[in-house]
């Protein structure tokens, strides 16, 4: 274990963890309002494809990110209409959204497969290291992700809106008694979740790979859902979790490069197994950390 | 109470409310003044809750007006009521368990700015909490507090939202005796500060000890108003019940076979992890032909006891013997198969599967009796059940309808037919007459008596002391998971039993 | 019984009519989308119909695509009867395939009489065990099965990939890793010179068995009791934990059979991309079908038709196959948007 290895893992963990963190933050907002979105994968794909298409057409990656965010929000609002407006089953609707995202992103992205784009420019943290130093040259979204997490934390735990949102996710009845309108708050939460999910997807296509490929999120949406649980629905813990889960992915690449033979598959299992372990421990110690009204029967063994 | 020329703070005149054909309220006048505690006293169904909910904007009255400090008020929703300074604490609190005390209180404030003003709210919270003698960390999740403290948080919440009238709906129902004392001191404190308090209760003692005025309601109307200096249980009882209270049926002597011990619990303790009070070192017996009554304030371990006997819980220490065999580890299926019947409260929730048909519900819980390989022997079941209905003199219902479609009384009859079909040797009845109309309740009591006459043992848990006095061959008082005392029929006296129920008095056997 | 049949027919015909309406709406919306994308939807629909219904091979392909869905939908429907939500069909499918492959590699020398039953059992057990872990966690009241089955979905394909890239890597094709081809004796027999294999018959039998068990046996009665009111069922003496474990095991086994069929009949070997979402589609099939056996057959057929439309779009219109998911989602969105359709406990 030498410094270069650790730095290398950290660098790529930060890079790959950023997308994961955005998606996780969005899902935290939605789940805090009581809605579980299994279709997060679909939202991320729509974001990735839209962002890539917009960038390819306009040459402006910032427009691409904006397009991705808006597309993600729009798609999530369809989801919101169904689960909040029509009280549809959250699991079935979420899975449907995932398929919708798979298909729509394939349609949007098809004309742009193989196109080269100028991705998000990498910026240097002032005064630290040189351009080539992996730890200091990231695109804007990476620098913004931790402030975004803090912002989401502040929004949820220090503002009146956030307080109302959490009340809705815990006990809609009490929220109504306090004069709140759960439906409106849930729509707002899901719109934000959609924005963040779209940005998460955009980071993949506009910063990490600079390509578009069908299904390129490769399950990251579900890792994010696991990460929400692992982070106990807290945006600040999610930062650590995203780094950890991102590291699992990159650790094996670095270890292979260093000559150690660790199967990438075993490494990729770690986030899921770790989350399952955490859940077992919570179940054992009888901690109910999830918002009480989440998914109405999604979480809880009663 | 001094009469002054100012109008009382809250007045309601001519309130009429109907639900369909039922006249729920017809109140010509109700008022409460500043610094006054008014008890709204009456039996279940007298209309007290309805009146309160109208005052709080939950219901809108069909006729009548409400005035605050002499000015007419239009109250169309709880939000309107709160804006006018009327607060109500329901039996089921509207607190969010996972949020902290601070957050629950903040949530309820009107007109909060975008960013929650933590320091300001905390300061007010601490000073109000001090007045209410509530010492809790404001950042502790409310769900972790004792019920009495949760209730104080609920009151705190209303006060901080500017309530000047506080309506408390049966507040002592969920409290342990010591906590009730705390509540009464709180009420006293609030009264001294000039708040108006409306205390809804059906307990005479509470009304007498707490209130400046007692408004007695009966069948939707105000039957009478007594003020503090005219106390008397008899006067109140006379107002609450139009006719003289019928004496309950005299206690019949029964044939108890002391030799045959059906159920014996020896120093049993349970773990109490389901939220119920755990049993602690509890010992008791039930003999053949005996009805053992269990008296107690609900929430002192009754459910735990019934779950234990039925095998839904196992004793952590001690033993449970059924027919002198160690049954501590037996499954519920085995216990039922051996002849233990279960008559729980709220049959829809606890004893039947609403989505299945009546026939299917009759089949479940009969153990292996009607198994025919992989299938069920429906014909035999039909025949046996028809016999059971006939024996109990119940009209047999249509067997193919869903259980959910039956009325409460009909469903209870189906459950009884099922449970009593095979001459159970031990019957566990948990609040069996709760929610039943008078006639069904009387029938059920008769059935329990007849079953015990035929040699069955009965465990009867009930909140109705009259019922327990009528039926029990022995009466045990359950308090805080332990047997606080035992009474024989010639010693059945409400004060003595009641004292043990609330934890006062000595624990001597009154044999 | 006669009364039940009449009721069933009435239910089916009204539901079929409602469904036809939904399908029409969705197809029209999708057609509009394709037109915007510059394609000819009418051509695609006509081509599909011709291929699928005018052509024996095309029709047989429908049956091939239907088969895994029958299994994975059953894997969701059965636990749903006792109120459990199994979203782990994907993972259970992979583990069934994995264990079946292990068996094939170990028993290669034997005849089909030994191999085929053995692989079937192994496929069942593989999926069953993968579902058993979440079942145990649920029975012990530690973890809700929805989350645990979901998480394990992603672990199973990784296990499969590990073996394909490692111990079971076929020496032949180094371009992309897979296991060696199954011997002929391990291949499921096919019917009518098509790719339709006996798995289809097996699946239909399983569904029939499921329908009979739930509606006519005492096990079905007790299951429906648990699904209807779990605490009351427990009070009545029904061994709820035992049912949780058994039912989840069987459900996982059903999905495992789908996996076994994929490797033994379709692919002929263990590959890393075994399932294009059969597990999730199975969830949606079961949900749409209201957990009824006939509904599952009908919905699986529908999804198979959609799959063929997707192929047509790819071949004749140059669109990626994935686009068909939009039509799929459209139908579901419309159904989801109407007031609740299917009830679980029946």
Question: What is the compact description of this entry?
Answer:
The complex is a heterotrimer of chains A (302), B (511) and C (346). Chain A is mostly helical. Chain A has eleven helices and two strands; from the N terminus they run H-H-H-H-E-E-H-H-H-H-H-H-H.
Your description of this structure?
The complex is a heterotrimer of chains A (302), B (511) and C (346). With 302 residues, chain A is mostly helical. Chain A has a single domain (10-115, 137-284), classed as Orthogonal Bundle (ABC transporter involved in vitamin B12 uptake, BtuC), CATH 1.10.3470. Chain A contains eleven helices and two strands; from the N terminus they run H-H-H-H-E-E-H-H-H-H-H-H-H. Chain A has a two-stranded antiparallel ribbon with strand order 1-2. In chain A, helix 2 (40-58) packs antiparallel against helix 3 (61-85), helix 6 (160-170) crosses helix 8 and helix 9 (220-230) runs parallel beside helix 11. The longest helix of chain A is centred in the first third of the chain and has 30 residues, at 3-32. Chain B has two domains: 10-241, P-loop containing nucleotide triphosphate hydrolases (Rossmann fold); 257-510, P-loop containing nucleotide triphosphate hydrolases (Rossmann fold, 3-Layer(aba) Sandwich). Chain B has a six-stranded mixed β-sheet with strand order 6-7-8-3-9-10, with helices on both faces. In chain B, strand 19 (426-430), helix 15 and strand 20 form a beta-alpha-beta unit. In chain B, helix 3 packs parallel to helix 5 (147-160) and helix 4 packs across helix 5. The longest helix of chain B is centred in the middle third of the chain and has 16 residues, at 177-192. With 346 residues, chain C is mainly alpha-helical. Chain C has a domain at 65-299. Chain C has 13 helices and no strands. In chain C, 54% of the residues are buried. Classes of the chains: A mainly alpha (302), B alpha/beta (511), C mainly alpha (346). The interface between A and C is large, with 49 and 49 residues.
């Amino acid at each position: 274990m030498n410094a270069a290895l650790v730095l290398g893992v950290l660098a790529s963990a930060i890079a790959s963890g950023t997308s994961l963190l955005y998606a996780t933050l969005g899902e935290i907002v939605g789940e805090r309002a009581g809605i579980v979105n299994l279709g997060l994968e679909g939202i991320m794909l729509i974001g990735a494809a839209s962002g890539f298409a917009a960038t390819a057409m306009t040459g402006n990656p910032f427009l691409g990110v904006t397009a991705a965010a808006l597309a993600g929000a729009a798609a999530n609002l369809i989801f919101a209409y169904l689960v909040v407006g029509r009280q549809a089953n959250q699991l079935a609707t979420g899975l449907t959204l995932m398929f919708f995202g798979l298909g729509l992103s394939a349609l949007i992205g098809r004309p742009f497969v193989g196109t080269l784009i100028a991705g998000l420019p990498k910026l240097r943290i002032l005064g630290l290291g040189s351009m080539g130093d992996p730890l200091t040259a990231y695109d804007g979204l990476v620098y913004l992700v931790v402030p975004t997490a803090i912002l989401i934390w502040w929004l949820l735990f220090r503002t009146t809106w956030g307080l109302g949102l959490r009340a809705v996710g815990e006990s809609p009845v009490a929220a109504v008694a306090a004069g709140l309108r759960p439906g409106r708050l849930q729509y707002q939460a899901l719109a934000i979740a959609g924005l963040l999910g779209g940005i998460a997807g955009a980071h993949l296509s506009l910063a990490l790979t600079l390509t578009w490929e069908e299904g390129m999120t490769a399950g990251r949406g579900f890792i994010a859902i696991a990460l929400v649980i692992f982070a106990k629905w807290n945006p600040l813990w999610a930062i650590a979790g995203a780094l950890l889960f991102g590291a699992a992915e990159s650790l094996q690449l670095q270890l292979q490069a260093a000559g150690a033979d660790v199967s990438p598959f075993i490494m990729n299992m770690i986030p899921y197994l770790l989350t399952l372990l955490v859940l077992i421990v919570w179940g054992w110690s009888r901690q109910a950390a999830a918002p009480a009204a989440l998914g109405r029967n999604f979480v809880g063994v009663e | 109470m001094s009469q002054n020329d100012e109008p009382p703070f809250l007045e309601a005149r001519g309130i009429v409310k109907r639900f369909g054909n039922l006249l729920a309220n017809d109140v010509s006048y109700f008022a409460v003044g500043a610094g006054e505690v008014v008890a709204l006293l009456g039996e279940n169904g007298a209309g007290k809750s309805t009146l309160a909910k109208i005052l709080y904007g939950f219901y809108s009255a069909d006729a009548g007006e409400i005035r605050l400090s002499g000015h007419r008020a239009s109250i169309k929703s709880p939000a309107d009521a709160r804006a006018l300074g009327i607060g109500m604490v329901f039996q089921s609190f509207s607190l969010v368990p996972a949020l902290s005390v601070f957050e629950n209180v903040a949530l309820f404030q009107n007109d909060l700015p975008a960013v929650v003003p933590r320091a300001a709210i905390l300061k007010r919270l601490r000073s109000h909490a001090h007045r209410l003698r509530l010492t809790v960390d404001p950042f502790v999740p409310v769900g972790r507090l004792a019920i009495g403290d949760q209730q104080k948080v609920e009151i705190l919440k209303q006060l901080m939202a500017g309530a000047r009238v506080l309506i408390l709906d049966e507040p002592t129902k969920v409290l342990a005796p010591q906590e009730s004392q705390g509540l009464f001191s709180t009420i006293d404190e609030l009264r001294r500060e000039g708040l108006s308090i409306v205390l809804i209760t059906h307990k005479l003692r509470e009304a007498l000890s707490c209130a400046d005025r007692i408004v007695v309601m009966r069948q939707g109307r105000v039957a009478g108003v007594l003020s503090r200096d005219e106390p008397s249980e008899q006067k109140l009882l006379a107002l609450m019940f139009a006719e003289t209270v019928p004496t309950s049926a005299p206690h019949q002597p029964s044939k108890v076979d002391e030799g045959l011990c059906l159920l014996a619990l020896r120093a049993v303790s349970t773990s109490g992890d389901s939220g119920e009070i755990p049993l602690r070192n509890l010992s008791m017996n039930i003999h053949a032909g005996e009805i053992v009554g269990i008296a107690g304030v609900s929430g002192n371990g009754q459910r735990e006891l019934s779950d234990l006997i039925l095998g839904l819980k196992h004793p952590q220490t001690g033993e449970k013997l059924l027919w002198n065999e160690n049954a501590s580890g037996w499954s519920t299926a085995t216990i039922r198969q051996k002849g233990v019947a279960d008559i729980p409260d709220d049959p829809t929730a606890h004893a039947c599967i609403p989505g299945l048909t009546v026939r299917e519900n009759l089949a479940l819980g009969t153990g292996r009796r009607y198994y025919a390989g992989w299938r069920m022997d429906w014909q035999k079941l039909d025949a046996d059940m028809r016999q059971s209905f006939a024996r109990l003199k119940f009209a047999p219902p249509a067997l193919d309808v869903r259980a959910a479609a039956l009325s409460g009384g009909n469903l209870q009859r189906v459950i009884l037919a099922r449970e009593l079909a095979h001459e159970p040797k031990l019957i566990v009845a948990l609040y069996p007459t709760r929610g039943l109309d008078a006639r069904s309740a009387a029938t059920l009591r008769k059935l329990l008596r007849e079953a015990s006459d035929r040699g069955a043992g009965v465990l009867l848990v009930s909140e109705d002391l009259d019922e327990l006095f009528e039926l029990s061959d022995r009466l045990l008082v359950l308090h805080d998971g332990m047997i606080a005392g035992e009474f024989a029929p010639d010693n059945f006296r409400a004060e003595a039993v009641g004292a043990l129920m609330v934890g006062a008095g000595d624990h001597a056997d009154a044999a | 019984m006669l009364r039940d049949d009449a009721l069933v027919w009435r239910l089916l015909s009204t539901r079929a009519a409602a469904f036809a309406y939904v399908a029409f709406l969705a197809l029209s919306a999708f057609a509009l989308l394709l037109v915007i994308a510059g394609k000819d939807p009418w051509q695609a629909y006509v081509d599909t119909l011709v291929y699928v219904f005018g052509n024996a091979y095309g029709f047989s392909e429908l049956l091939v695509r239907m088969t895994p869905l029958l299994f994975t939908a059953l894997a969701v429907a059965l636990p749903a009867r006792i109120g459990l939500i199994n979203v782990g069909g994907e993972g259970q499918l992979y583990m069934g395939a994995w264990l079946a492959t292990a068996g094939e590699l170990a028993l290669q020398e034997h005849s089909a009489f030994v191999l085929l039953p053995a692989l079937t059992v192994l496929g069942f057990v593989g999926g069953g065990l993968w579902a058993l872990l979440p079942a145990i966690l649920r029975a012990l009241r530690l973890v809700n099965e929805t989350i645990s089955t979901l998480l394990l979905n992603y672990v199973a394909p990784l296990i499969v990939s590990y073996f394909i890239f490692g111990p079971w890597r076929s020496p032949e094709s180094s371009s992309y890793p897979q296991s060696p081809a199954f011997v002929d004796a391990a291949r499921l027999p096919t019917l009518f010179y098509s790719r339709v294999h006996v798995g289809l018959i097996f699946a239909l039998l399983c569904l029939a068995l499921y329908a009979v068990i739930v509606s006519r046996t005492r096990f079905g009665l007790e299951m429906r009791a648990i699904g209807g009111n779990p605490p009351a069922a427990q009070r009545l003496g029904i061994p709820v934990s035992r049912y949780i474990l058994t039912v989840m095991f069987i459900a996982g086994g059903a999905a495992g059979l789908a996996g076994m069929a994929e490797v033994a009949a379709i692919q002929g070997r263990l590959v890393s991309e075994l399932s294009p979402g059969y597990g999730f589609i199975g969830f949606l099939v079961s949900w749409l079908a209201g957990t009824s056996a006939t509904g599952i057959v009908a919905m699986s057929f529908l999804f198979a038709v959609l799959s063929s439309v997707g192929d047509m779009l790819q071949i004749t219109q140059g669109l990626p196959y994935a686009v068909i998911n939009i039509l799929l989602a459209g139908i579901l969105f419309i159904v989801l948007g109407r007031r609740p359709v299917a009830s679980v406990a029946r």
